[in-house]
Design brief:
single chain, 275 residues, alpha+beta, five-stranded mixed beta sheet, two-stranded antiparallel sheet, 6 helices, elongated
């Protein structure tokens, strides 16, 4: 409009060739400016959020890979430790002339290692699978020590599908057998209990050995420290591990974990946390 007026005052004949514009109210300019600013802020915010989520995803994947490596390293410590003790037991049977028992023990060891290889890359397995490990281990020890060792497995049916770290209980049961029962001529018993309570999975390993009478703490060694580190990696503050005295004698190891169960879905399965 201003251009048209200036041109008309100088050379009226050019006015017809110059388009005429209506005056745009200031309110429209302000509204349009705010709209443009708002869309720009929204655009850059969304782009920033997407970039941040990508970085978080990369960081989570990197931490997941690192955690998996740490868990596998911890898990791999248990198998040589168990294998060493079992081979010593087989050697002792051979020296004692108990060849049939040695052959049976080798067969049980083969079953244990085969199942172990099947789950070597799995950080968590159902309680039902963990109890297969426990049964193999106790059967091996039962062959060697006979009536000196008795055991009881008390697992609630609803706990069988709950997830636990692979080989969580085996080293703790091994500690109970090696340090709580077998050093004593009369032997003893080990009880393993697993049950659920609301949103918690509770596991308990108890022996009736001498407990803390001979030392401030029993010599748990790699078993207990390994278990504590694995629980910390997987659950952080959500997991509890308590070592205490039995009601009469012996040692009790209690573990509490968040209850996560495997739900079957057709040909596959999924994990579901109760809560």
């Amino acid at each position: 409009m201003v251009i048209s007026q200036i041109t008309y005052s100088v050379r009226p004949s050019l006015v017809n060739s110059i388009p005429s514009y209506a005056v745009i109210p200031l309110k429209i300019w302000i509204n349009s400016g705010f709209a443009l600013l708002g869309w720009s802020l929204l655009y850059f915010s969304i782009n920033g959020w997407i970039s941040l989520e990508r970085e978080r995803r990369r960081a989570a994947e990197a931490e997941g890979l690192a955690q998996s490596a740490r868990l596998q390293a911890l898990q791999s410590q248990l198998q040589p430790h168990f294998l060493f003790n079992t081979l010593n037991g087989i050697s002792a049977l051979v020296v004692d002339g108990r060849h049939d028992a040695a052959i049976s023990m080798i067969s049980r060891l083969s079953d244990f290692l085969r199942f172990s290889l099947q789950t070597s890359d799995t950080p968590q397995i159902p309680v039902a699978s963990e109890m297969v490990f426990i049964r193999h281990y106790l059967d091996i020890q039962k062959i060697r020590f006979g009536d000196r060792l008795t055991f009881r497995l008390d697992v609630a049916p609803e706990a069988l599908s709950a997830l636990v770290p692979t080989l969580l209980l085996q080293p703790l049961v091994e500690n109970a057998v090696q340090h709580g029962i077998l050093p004593h001529r009369e032997g003893g018993s080990v009880t393993i209990k697993v049950h659920t309570d609301a949103r918690t999975l509770k596991l308990r390993i108890e022996d009736d050995g001498p407990g803390f009478r001979t030392s401030p703490m029993p010599p748990f060694g790699v078993g207990l420290s390994n278990t504590a580190r694995r629980l910390d990696e997987l659950y952080g503050d959500q997991a509890k591990l308590i070592v205490g005295r039995g009601a009469v004698s012996g040692v009790v190891v209690s573990i509490e974990l968040p209850l996560v169960v495997v739900r079957e879905q057709g040909a596959g399965s999924r994990a579901q946390e109760i809560g």
